[in-house]
Amino acid sequence: MNALLALSICILGIAGLFFLDRDKSARTSPALWLPLLYLLVIASRPVSVWLGGTSRTPSAEILAGTLEGSPVDAAWSGMLIAGGIITLLLTRRRKTAAILKASGPIVIYFMYCLLSTLWSPFPDASFKRWIKCAGDLIMVMVILTDAQPAAALQRLFSRISFVLFPLSIVFIKYTSLGVSYDEQGPHYTGVTTNKNALGLMLYILTIGIVWNIRTLVMDKKSPNRIGRLVAQVTILAFGIVLLRVAHSATGIFCFSLGGGLMLATGMPIVRKRTSILHVLCFGIFVLGLGGLFFGGSGAVASAMGRTSDFSGRTEIWAAAIASEDSQWIGTGFESFWNKNNPKVVAILQAEGYADIANLNSAHNGYLQIYLDLGCVGVCLLLYVLATGYLRVVKAFRINGELGSLFLAYLMTCAFYSITEAGFRIMTLTWIFLLLAVVGATGVNVGRVRVKERGSRIRIAPAAMENILV
């Protein structure tokens, strides 16, 4: 089968999935197209690459030292961010203000990131990157302030997956666009720009699809339920097949962790006694960190497709720490890796490290924050994660469906960032971590309207009197 015929069949298949998944009962805002388009690009390739430019993800371009970036990509993201700001200010101002007021840890972290642009060696570029970071939060707020946020999330997961999963299969099997080669052989990239990006996109979206399926299974009165289940199960099968084809051990691990958490939180005993949820999460945390850092790193790394030194990551970590600019405040927001940081390059060259040309991050989210924002930034990030976890658990008590989704993203993003720079801007893990923490905050203050099975609406009591404003 030639590529054109395969693409034509793929387009027909995508149209069929959209037809099967139709739900006339959902009344999401047209503004949902803003985060949808934003995430479609971040989950695949920058607009400039789709138009024939160099193959580089937005975050990789930022961290590799391209100070100006692509004007096409800047115009695209700027247009969507501006649309998000207008939406939030004109039609959702009070709801947005209430959620942000309650999201103290996130706001403090963002303000410190803004402040750190002042001591960056490239303050103008650092500030522009902070604007893009704010854009991630703006898109999350557009989703969560929708009149039907749960339906908005369902549509978001479905529409992005319906497009990117089938196209990835066509790119890999019938074209050269979805495969890259090096001395180790072929690497499958699908609609993304590298193997790791494909694994990340697949794990994030397949967790969302599992959540869609679980919601449909539990809600027996959902309109067009059978057709929607067929579409969701089909696209989940595509995602699992692609995870295997991509040989993304980290993606498979995070998907298994997130999916397992959602299945566990669906058990009646966990819903009734959230203390069991704490035990479950604590057990996962201890076993994971214990395996990584206290003698079991070889076995855990092997299970995740890494060597015992995490495929050379420990060399990068040691060189990066030795090259830090300031232990307390860091180099400045998204500034450490500009020009691949000559200090790190010199150390790795002396040690004979072979892949310096592609070095653009610390391959550890926590270390990445330390290098850019120092110990202060790491403490603020841990504050966001800790308070975010407590808020997610509280949201789980109010609404088990949304709470389980938020918990899955919070836990998997925290683990993903141990071996990848998962907290950097315009990255799916960072965006969905924001979604989990801010979404849980919105549920807790009653500004995110949540719907349990059937038609019963459950609202946090403290905000019942203001929920309709």
Rounded to the nearest angstrom, the distance between the terminal CA atoms is: 56 Å
Low-pLDDT residue spans: 61-65, 294-300, 452-469
Please give the order of strands in the largest beta sheet: 1-2
> What helical percentage do the residues reach?
55-70%
Write down the overall geometry: globular
What's the main sheet like? 2 strands, antiparallel
Helix and strand element order:
HHHHHHHHHEEHHHHHHHHHHHEE
Structural class: mainly alpha
Total beta-strand segments: 4
Strand content: under 5%
**CA radius of gyration:** 22 Å
* Continuous helix count: 20
Mean pLDDT: 83
Q: Could you describe the 3D structure shown?
A:
The protein has 469 residues and is an all-alpha fold. Helices cover 67% and strands 3% of the residues. It is built from 20 helices and 4 strands. It has helices at residues 3-20, 33-43, 47-50, 58-63, 71-91, 93-102, 104-116, 123-144, 149-174, 195-218, 225-246, 249-265, 268-272, 274-293, 297-303, 313-322, 342-350, 365-398, 400-416, 428-444; strands at residues 179-182, 185-188, 450-451, 457-458. It has a two-stranded antiparallel sheet. The protein has a two-stranded antiparallel ribbon with strand order 3-4. A hairpin with a 2-residue loop joins strand 1 (179-182) and strand 2. Helix 16 (313-322) packs across helix 17 (342-350). It starts with a helix and ends in an 11-residue tail after the last strand. Mean pLDDT is 83; it is low at 61-65, 294-300 and 452-469.
